[in-house]
């Protein structure tokens, strides 16, 4: 997942340029003081520490 913030506008997208911004509002609403691009992985962990999803 790639997080891109430019002029206060956030966009989340995959390496194939599929827009995922609306799928992860908690991440899309995180604003940083400056423009930036972050590349990483998103993992969902259940309450018992079991990996349930990986993007």
Task: Explain the overall architecture.
The protein has 55 residues and is mostly beta strands. It is 7% helix and 38% strand. The chain has one helix at residues 25-28, and strands spanning 2-6, 9-13, 36-39, 43-45, 51-54. The strands form 2 sheets. A 3-stranded antiparallel β-sheet has the order 2-1-3, with no helix packed on it. Strand 4 (43-45) and strand 5 form a beta hairpin. It is globular.
List the SSEs and their pairings:
Layout: E1 2-6, E2 9-13, H1 25-28, E3 36-39, E4 43-45, E5 51-54
Antiparallel strand pairs: 1-2, 1-3, 4-5
Share in helix: under 10%
Structural class: mainly beta
Gap between N and C termini, in Å? 7 Å
Biggest sheet, in brief? 3 strands, antiparallel
SSE order, one letter for each helix or strand:
EEHEEE
Radius of gyration: 12 Å
Query: Shape, please?
Result: globular
For the secondary structure, the number of strands is 5
Report the uncertain regions: none
Share in β-strands: 35-45%
């Amino acid at each position: 997942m790639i997080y891109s913030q430019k002029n206060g506008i956030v966009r989340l997208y995959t390496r194939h340029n599929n827009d995922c911004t609306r799928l992860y509002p908690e991440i899309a609403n995180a604003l940083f003081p400056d423009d930036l691009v972050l590349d990483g992985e998103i993992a969902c962990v259940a309450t018992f520490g079991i990996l349930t999803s990986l993007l």
